[in-house]
Amino acid sequence: MDLATRFFKFLASIRLAVFIIISIGVISAIGTIYEARYDARYAQEMVYNSPYMWIIMGLLAINLIAVMVDRWPWKKRHIGFVLAHVGIILMLLGSVFTKFYGVDGSISFDIGQSNRYVTLQEHELSVYSSFADSRMTEMVKMDVNFFKNPPSEDHPFLLSFGNKSVSIKKYYHYGIRQSSINSSEDTVDGPGVRFQLQNKNVSLSEWLIRPQAKNYESINMGPARVILSDGSYQYQGGNEVVLEAMPESSAIQYKIFTSSRGGLSSSGEIHAGESVETGWMGLTLRILRFLPRAKETISYTREQYPNKLTHPAIYLEYEGKPYWMALNSVLRFYDSDKVYIVVFGNKRINIGFDMKLTQFKMSKYQGTNRAATYESDVDVPELGSVNISMNEPLKYNGFIFYQASFEQDEKGKPVTSILSVNYDPGRGLKYLGSFLLVLGSIILFYFKRGFFLKKPKGQQS
Questions:
Q1: Is residue 312, in this structure, part of any structural domain at all?
Q2: pTM of the prediction?
Q3: Which end of the chain has less neighbouring CB within 10 Å, N or C?
């Protein structure tokens, strides 16, 4: 027996099959441990999409093909055997199509809002620029996987756009945000106010910073909304506190609006250290600190394991200055006649049609605030109004939309619906492979002797 024949016999051997089965079991066990200790993304990248898993899956396909070739020419008794092996190969092939061409993400919209973009787990970097005509132009967009290919000080990731570039030098998959507010001399930085809302039951304090390029910045504090404006903000209803920095003055002009009066309740000037009654819920507004120009300095520390506060972050340098960016955040760099906007976020794809959330329904378990069922009514092209519930997904244009979750406002009212979106071009192959595997197994174990083999005449009844 020559070397080639011996090698082929090894590929078709039961020894290789046993090695593959044990390897799959070990890798799956490691993946389960990683997912429990870290998260699903970590296990996916480190285990299930690792070269080891691809090699084992490739060996499995080779072993299945070699075994079938080794049995050639096939006879009737091989039908079940061949069908089962072909079924497994088709399932592997379908999984490859799913991996490279499938979509697994989510789409979210507020009530009355339309959306046609699905958010994926993968990350991307984008750069936009705004010139004198204020139109936004996309300059760069690229997929990145800093988890598998992390940048470093010695080997930074260079993001070039025009004659500018950003050097990305660190990536933390589990980063915790650290923040400090300081006075600034940069003309692009606007005013900053640290304020406190308190009564005998509650005390809330926050920083509010308005960049010079924005007309106002706001924060929702539960019972009220606090706005830091340049003077152009118009009352939008509810309880609102509008603050405005006064030029060349340490004073802040305030306006307090209440829902009970439907408009302005009081106004005046206030300095750091002073307080004013808001007129709702016995809350007092106190100005703790005021900076005519404020800059928020962000940094991140790396954690070994995930928690509720961790999220991916990158460290970068632009024209010698350091910056940190969290996932799904934006950085603005100002030039003499333009602004560059760098976005680090989850990849989004256009599904080719708009979906509009017209109504969201939720029922709760009796006597609790826990959601029992929830469903979305959406407008879909060609179909009109469609209901998507937890047990009744929508199938349209090759996509399947499942009701996944929802978001609530501070009063517990649902305001955003989140649908899970799946597109699987390998589904047909996997279904066909599963059918052939089951059919082949039935033939092998139940009909192998009696259904496909003729009995000798002496044994026939």
A1: no
A2: 0.76
A3: C
Task: Tell me, yes or no, whether 51 lies in a domain.
Answer: yes
Q: What are the pLDDT digits (tens) for 349-385?
A: 999 999 999 999 988 888 887 888 899 999 998 899 9
Domain CATH for 110: 2.60.98
Both 113 and 30 in one domain: the answer is no
Q: What is the 3-state secondary structure (H, E, C) of the chain?
A: CCHHHHHHHHHCCHHHHHHHHHHHHHHHHHHHHHHHHCCHHHHHHHHHCCHHHHHHHHHHHHHHHHHHHHCCCCCHHHHHHHHHHHHHHHHHHHHHHHHHHCEEEEEEEECCCEEEEEEEEEEEEEEEEECCCCCEEEEEEEEECCCCCCCCCCCCEEEEECCEEEEEEEEEEEEEEEEEEEECCCCCCCCEEEEEEECCCCEEEEEEECCCCCCEEEEECCCCEEEEECCCCCCCCCCEEEEEECCCCCCEEEEEEECCCCEEEEEEEECCCCEEECCCCCCEEEEEEEECCEEEEEEEEECCCCCCCCEEEEEEEECCEEEEEECCEEEEEECCCCEEEEEEEEEEEEEEEEEEEEEEEEEECCCCCCEEEEEEEEEECCCEEEEEECCCCEEECCEEEEEEEEEECCCCCEEEEEEEEEECCCHHHHHHHHHHHHHHHHHHHHCCCCCCCCCCHHHCC
- Domain around 72: 3-101+426-459
Spans of the chain, pLDDT less than 70? 1, 131-134, 410, 447-461
Looking at the fold, whether 90 and 110 belong to one and the same domain comes out as: no
**Do 18 and 108 have their domain in common?**
no
Q: Is residue 376 part of a domain?
A: yes
Domains in the chain, number: 3
